[in-house]
Design goal:
The complex is a heterodimer of chains A (111) and B (117). Chain A is 0% helix and 47% strand. With 111 residues, chain A is mainly beta. In chain A, β5 and β6 form a beta hairpin. Chain A starts with 8 loop residues before the first strand and ends with a strand. Chain B is 0% helix and 56% strand. Chain B has no helices and eleven strands. The chains are: A mainly beta (111), B mainly beta (117).
Chain lengths: 111, 117
């Protein structure tokens, strides 16, 4: 079972920041928060992951609350090509865990 | 990032025939690959875990005799849908796990769209 809850859908104006929330209240100490996205009819694409510190890469920023029970993925300047389903996943970083997808958040970037 | 390919990208077949889908890790070795299925407007559902040189592990409710998985090398896993029926029409996606610095990285293929007539 997916260990996260996300809003079903969100809209964002093009050029504005998209903030996608995720709740993972049962996360354990050695589990990481991973974010993937899936553009229509394509395979999932890795975005970012983190343990407890905030993380940033060329695609997005990940903000994890101090108690680690929730996080927010931030796309700083959303473009139309960011329209996709975004999946927040809790995952052990060891070799034995597998990626289980929940329903995700369908983000629509609006011109 | 690492590249995972799938072949074919689309396939249409008649009911009762078998279809093979290939998943390749192009620039890394993958001891473990995963197969997912996705129906329209739904999330990805994990079907099975494919381990190089051993039998696949299937998720509950997935028929192992219908979805045959072979992982004969460190860069190739195949999924064969046997005696396909229209209800098997779906988007099939594989992922390959690369162990880097002792931790888990999974890379996904572009998917294969199967249509059974």
């Amino acid at each position: 079972d997916a260990k996260t809850t996300q809003p079903t859908s969100m809209d964002c104006a093009e050029g504005r920041a998209a903030n996608l929330p995720c709740n993972h209240s049962t996360i354990s100490g050695n589990e990481y928060v991973y974010w993937y996205r899936q553009i229509h009819s394509q395979g999932p694409q890795y975005i970012i992951h983190g343990l407890k510190n905030n993380e940033t890469n060329e695609m997005a920023s990940l903000i994890i609350t101090e108690d680690r029970k929730s996080s927010t993925l931030i796309l700083p300047h959303a473009t139309l090509r960011d329209t996709a389903v975004y999946y927040c996943i809790v995952l052990l970083k060891t070799s034995y865990d597998k990626v289980i997808f929940g329903p995700g958040t369908s983000l629509s970037v609006i011109p | 990032g690492a590249v995972v390919s799938q072949h074919p990208s689309r396939v249409i077949c008649k009911s009762g025939t078998s279809v093979k889908i290939e998943c390749r890790s192009l620039d890394f070795q993958a001891t473990t690959m995963f197969w997912y299925r996705q129906f329209p407007k739904q999330s990805l559902m994990l079907m099975a875990t494919s381990n190089e040189g051993s039998k696949a592990t299937y998720e509950q409710g997935v028929e192992k005799d219908k979805f045959l998985i072979n992982h004969a090398s460190l860069t190739l896993s195949t999924l064969t849908v046997t005696s396909a029926h229209p209800e098997d029409s779906s988007f099939y996606i594989c992922s390959a796990r690369r162990l880097a610095l002792g931790y888990n990285e999974q890379f996904f293929g572009p998917g294969t769209r199967l249509t059974v007539l």
